Amino acid sequence: MLGRPRKGATLKEEVWQTDDGDVVKYSLAYINPRIYSLDNGRVLGYDNSHEFHHRHYIGTVQAIKFDGYETLASRFYKGVNELWRSEDENDHKKTTPEPTQWRSRLAALMNSLNALSAALADWIEMKSSRLK
Q1: Rounded to an integer, what distance in angstroms lies between the CA atom of residue 57 and that of residue 65?
Q2: Is the whole-model pTM more than 0.70?
Q3: What's the per-residue H, E or C state across the chain?
Q4: Which one, of 9, 53, 51, lies nearest residue 31 by Cα?
Q5: CB 36: neighbour CB atoms within 10 A?
Q6: What is the pLDDT of residues 41-53, one digit of tens each?
Q7: Rounded distance, CA 11 to CA 27, Å?
Q8: Fewer CB within 10 Å of terminal CB in the chain, N or C?
Q9: Where are the domains of the chain?
Q10: Angle formed at CA 61 by CA 53 and CA 9, multiple of 5 degrees
Q11: 64-114 residue pLDDT tens
Q12: How many other C-beta atoms are found inside a 10 Å radius of the C-beta of residue 107?
């Protein structure tokens, strides 16, 4: 199914069935950390964990209508092919931020952590003064 070798790409299809062939659990995933580094590299996926049928797409989760496993698997593979076609057309443009963007994101995170640390210290001091 791969149109050409895709470095870092993995397709995963896991299906659990009853003895009668009814699908009770499934997980379909296109994983490529070079395209999306969060969510264990899952770019696109479908599963029915957490008691509902849903779609994962680059970090978002959306409930879906389940019309049967075969229909869903067809939708998944069509989506993967569309993603690969888009990747080919865009010549694998980088989707990760440039180093300067990482630095600014890290600085913002550090500021948030410092503010949280100060708020926690104030809260601990307030609680300990009430115990005295």
Answers
A1: 16
A2: no
A3: CCCCCCCCCEEEEEEEECCCCCEEEEEEEEECCCCCCCHHHEEEEEECHHHCCEEEECCEEEECCCCCHHHHHHHHHHHHHHHHHHHHHCCCCCCCCCHHHHHHHHHHHHHHHHHHHHHHHHHHHHHHHHHC
A4: 9
A5: 20
A6: 898 999 998 889 9
A7: 11
A8: C
A9: 10-89, 97-132
A10: 95
A11: 999 989 999 999 999 998 888 887 776 545 555 566 777 777 877 888 888
A12: 10
Question: CA 108, CA 103: separation in Å to the nearest integer?
Answer: 9
Q: How far apart are CA 25 and CA 103, in angstroms?
A: 41
Lookup result for tokens 């791969």: 2
The amino acid sitting at 120 is L
Q: What is the torsional sign of CA 63, 64, 68, 72?
A: negative
Q: Please compute Rg for the chain using Cα positions.
A: 22
Tokens of 91: 């010549």
State phi, psi for 80 to the nearest 5 degrees.
Answer: -60, -45
Beta strands 54-57 and 42-47 are antiparallel
Strands 23-31 and 10-17, how do they pair? antiparallel
